[in-house]
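Q: Structure for this?
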Amino acid sequence: SAVISQKPSRDICQRGTSLTIQCQVDSQVTMMFWYRQQPGQSLTLIATANQGSEATYESGFVIDKFPISRPNLTFSTLTVSNMSPEDSSIYLCSALQGGAETQYFGPGTRLLVL
Amino acid sequence: GQQLNQSPQSMFIQEGEDVSMNCTSSSIFNTWLWYKQDPGEGPVLLIALYKAGELTSNGRLTAQFGITRKDSFLNISASIPSDVGIYFCAGQPTGNQFYFGTGTSLTVIP
């Protein structure tokens, strides 16, 4: 199994600022993803982090708001830009291992925007 | 994106009782995963299923990959207080993306 860590674990931010969340996997993985989870809700996929190229965004999410980097096979960052209270959520990093058949999650980053 | 129908939405059971929950999809899936999420934590993988009809156990948990490949079931036997949490199913049709169920919130009453 893959062990995934995220930093920061939580943060309180002022509206209009940006926050970068880091995701580190303890082994090389085929795919990395970023999800958002509102309290009491299911997981919503933001984007697929592609190694060495631009991320692939889901409908409703754009690069200007959620720029993503993935410089190598074990690390990715998600930036939440120009934050508003509506961005308050849990942001989760995940990775696919093996033949892309098993997905593991990080512990999440709890973001509160005031 | 596609979302799976997961039921029940919530369950309140007595300690020692068995629990059953399921996920259904309108599409055929090649992989089913079941997760448990505790408050303030990320989802933790419980069981992975890769073949139609497959039945896999992990301690008191048993999950099955439906024969139609459009559904999956999770059973928890002899529930204990630490089983409390939200359970999610996830299905993978083709490619790399997984789609997630709406979650089942489980409360175990001692």
